[in-house]
Input
Amino acid sequence: MDVRRTAVVKLAVSDEQRDALHRTADQYLYCANRTADYCWSDTSFTECKTNKRQVRDALYSALREETDLQAQLVQAAIKRAVEAVKGCVERWKKGQRVSCPTFTAETMDYDTRSATFYRNKVSLATVEGRVEPSFVLPADSPTPYEQYVLSEDYEFRESTLRYDPVDDEFYLHISTRRTDGDAEVPADTGHPDQTVLGIDLGVNSLAVSSTGTFWQGDDYDHWCREFEKRRREMQQRGTQAAHNAVLRLGKREEAWRKQYIHTVANELISEAVEHNCDVIAFEDLTDIRERLPHAKWHHVWAFRRLFEYVSYKAPEKGVTVEQVEPNHTSQRCSRTDCGFTHPDNRRGEHFECQKCGYEVNADYNGAKNIGLRYARKRIHRLRSSPKSGDRDAEVNLRVNGGTLNGKSHQPIAGD
Ligand SMILES: [Zn+2]
Output
């Protein structure tokens, strides 16, 4: 199973480093916007350029000449712009209103060639050479950073530097993937008219996808508990200064939690894009408090935020977001030839079908059911459509090739 971790780390930047990062971001945005202009055509989506290699060949040398950016940053800016244009073209094809993407947020993508990680600092390529801001790490050990970025069990994937204009700080979002036991992605069957990624939001894991990726959120839980502990300590002092400190702490915590959920949202969208999914299906969250009485408030908050962010950002990548009725998705057997539904099927994190014996991680079972429910609903709608072409359309669910307990199961098509 594929386990990803994200560490969001605040950078302690000096005034010179700050200037260097802002100037780098300006030039990065210049590259991204110039690339988007080059790729875009208002006439027709067939005129838009979306071949990354061709665009890079056409623009790379010129952008290197025009800017002081390091090679990899120029390439990253081109890549980001081409992907955005591609997302717009997808929406255009579906008849939605689109216009040439523009980039204004100071956000830069770094990889192992443009960023080097040390225990307490990172070295980042900028237009003024390398800068090495140190991390603002919480006092406790191990921090999420130490656990996932420096750990040998996790492989560094990429990081995104974001400037937050509200609190005037730079944050590094570092993405890692566990190196052992990565499951193979099943081959694309090539015919589906729509492919769905199902997402289960739960108590055991923050989010689980039908492709078998887990966002466990235990680092999220850990830091929420730490903030809570600090808050209680301050409140006990009861002074005005302590009261003000509690308010400041609350602001910091909220900013931190938003950053965290933002990163998970981006990863969920990447998961959909990497698996060629057109749709991300969530369960309806309206009655989530009633359905998950044991969920902590910060989880319920996280679910709502996560859904909001994904809904807001997925369309940029040509992915739509849908919700399905949540009834019994956790108690139902996700095997398409079974579907037996019973409360006894689920025991905590473990799912075992009382009828066919299918055993699997309970959240993963839920993610598959959510995806399947969307697929069935859509097929039903298409079958009753007046257009004959729509009636043959296929809706598939993207799943993982294996299960947590190692037993294989039948790949699921949209029924
Ligand atoms: Zn079953």
